[in-house]
Amino acid sequence: MSQKYLFLAGLTMVAILVATSIPGYATSQMQDEKIKTAFIYVGPKDYGWSYMHEVARRYIDEKFPWLETVYAEDVSEANIEDYIKRFVIEEECDIIFTTSFAFMDATIEAAKKYPDTIFFNCSGYKRASNVATYFAEFYQLYYLNGLMAGALTKTGKLGYVAAYPTPEVVRHINAFALGVKKTNPGATVDVRWLFAWYDPTKARTAAESLIKEGCDVLAFTEDSPAVVKVGQEYTEKGEPVYTFANYSPMQKLGPDSCVSGQLVHWEVLYQDILAKVYAEVYTSRNLADVDYWWMLQDKAVELGGEFDAPINPKFKSIFRQQKIIDPLLGEISIYDLVMRRLGEMSEVTVLFDPFTGPIKDQEGKVRIGTGRRASHDELWLMDWFVENIVGKFPHSSNDLVCEKRIAATAVHSAAVGLGGIMKNISNEKDRIELIRAFITPIRFYPDKSGYFYVYDTDCVNIAHAVQKNLQGKNLYDYQDIKGKFVIRELAAKAKEGGGFVEYYWVHPDSEGEDRKIGYVELIPGTGYFIGSGVYLN
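Predicted structure:
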């Protein structure tokens, strides 16, 4: 987009924000009555992720006189449907913000039931005519935290307390580890998984376990300040353990140990979204392509353990004294390097990106080539660790929720990608050859179980990455060992808009059928659906 059009777009947005902030203002295209908006939080609104959504809710509630807001906190994935129903039916909300990746599928299903309601899902990727997605991305900040962390460690061992192995969390761990590697090439990052977004007890246990293993610097993704508190306790005992806050201001809880962190400005996104809804730029009919992914350059995130303090003042002199040699910048202090990269990533043109190759995974395989920046889809599908991480990416039946999310994300991206490519291919034979060539080499997991398959909606197999003998066969009447008509159910689920089906299927590394959960979606603009799945044994 040219600078001229960027300038005009900016003026338009300013006009909307100014106009909609004036009490009593309304054009013929704007509503006279209040817009009622609901926020559904995955955790308590005391610290971290949910707390910052709540801060933003209060901000916009006060800013816009035409807005009325309500909220629910500590909502589980199992109960999300009931809360959406309550807000739509009983409280007559016009807009629903579901603030968790875990709420994505329920949001999509609710959108079908309530087509006149506007939904925004935070950190998900599925959209519809009345469902948009939004996210404030942190990987730039985690990289900056990693630069500081690598310079601080005395043991060369750093720890990361992680919630779930979703692409978002994995992306952040990798960014942190890349920062560590820059300032301390020999250091390693160990990971402890909680399998919970909010669990202070587990977070404390994981932090203490990492410290016992020799880690003296900790970062985390979990919705409480437990890790920061642990770091402060050890530091007060004369055993310094440095930490980095997550999502909300936590430095006051670790004044001697909390170095910096990541802070979010959800209000920036909510203000933009709601102003556009009020101005009828966004409606319940045009949200399918609305996807916010805002970062430093959008002022949606901020470096620091406290607002307006990128680095805890107690550590500034340390970082000014520590220096490294950069191939392009020459000798530079850690402080100057952090601030330089912060400035470069805050530019509209984003002059520096942490995920610029060459970047290798734990097996030594080049994942991002020299000089190339990772694409949006690569970042959103990230399910591998960089080479200086010693913790393992979990792939077991115990991690079912995470595995399902990975499969769903991969299938969705593949469906969208194939649909886009095949727009220009009309010949059926050419389409089938393309699909087969595309899915054949792809595997998600070391046991070769992460593969794709494609059928048409009449249950004829179009392509199978593992069982080539199925290609061209009609499996409408195929039943698994439990008598389930597998392909019929997969086709029905795809036609409904996509989703999961449990069944039994042959595992690539074993004889006989294993229990499996498959995720399927239609390939846009075709009569095919694509799927993948998770073996449970």
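Summary: Residues 1-30 have pLDDT under 50 and may be disordered.
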